[in-house]
Amino acid sequence: MTVKLHARWLEPLQKEFDSPYMADLRAFLVAEKAAGKRIFPKGADWFRALDLTPPEAVRVVILGQDPYHGEGQAHGLCFSVQPGVRVPPSLVNIYKELQTDLGIAPARHGFLEHWAKQGVLLLNNCLTVEMGLAASHKGRGWEKFTDAVVAHVNASDKPTVFMLWGSHAQKKAAAVASRHLVLKSVHPSPLSAHGGFFGCRHFSKANQFLEAQGRGKIDWALPPL
């Protein structure tokens, strides 16, 4: 298993990397590749969210489910796609809410590394997927690993914002401590966004909380590529 992540994550997650479930996950992924199956994202990007956002820098946590399973989309950050790839529908709705909330015009791309580099942890529940098969790596061990990531952020004494969109994300971070700000809504998917995501104003609420805690605000406006 390729491990490329910020050095500050290695100590709190070492127990996970050394655990039997991670050995099983590693064996599964090696076997899948040996069988000729295509796995997204590429191995160097499996831990991209943890590489760009070290633990002490985390100010906001956004939780996704699977990486995108289409050709050239996934690169290790939830909701984000690589440059030149069409903006996916859920991210289109995130941009719409950003415009309503903060007056930020929708970006013409879906590359969210600008957020990650400011302390927005864009973490998927599972970090790999087989091409064309959503949820194909569910239950293989990634969930335990990402639970450990969420638990480490939750244990920090630095007040952090958890944006929990949809029941899946809300279950993932159900026990967040009261010193953090938990913002909940339905998922931004076109199937549910009109049920409460639009108008949630999570981005301005996050910035208000972070500034009140002396942690500064996130610049949610994405620069052009």
Automatic annotation (TrEMBL):
Enzyme class, broadest EC rank: hydrolase
Ranges where the Uracil-DNA glycosylase-like domain occurs: 51-210
Active site: 66 (proton acceptor)
Enzyme Commission identifier(s): 3.2.2.27
InterPro entries on file: UDG_fam1, Ura-DNA_Glyclase_AS, Uracil-DNA_glycosylase-like, Uracil-DNA_glycosylase-like_sf
GO biological process: base-excision repair, AP site formation via deaminated base removal
GO molecular function, one term: uracil DNA N-glycosylase activity
Reaction it catalyzes: Hydrolyzes single-stranded DNA or mismatched double-stranded DNA and polynucleotides, releasing free uracil
SUPFAM superfamilies recorded: Uracil-DNA glycosylase-like
Entry's localization field: Cytoplasm
Family (UniProt): Belongs to the uracil-DNA glycosylase (UDG) superfamily. UNG family.
Role description: Excises uracil residues from the DNA which can arise as a result of misincorporation of dUMP residues by DNA polymerase or due to deamination of cytosine.
NCBIfam families: PRK05254.1-1, PRK05254.1-2, PRK05254.1-4, PRK05254.1-5, ung
Name of the molecule in the record: Uracil-DNA glycosylase
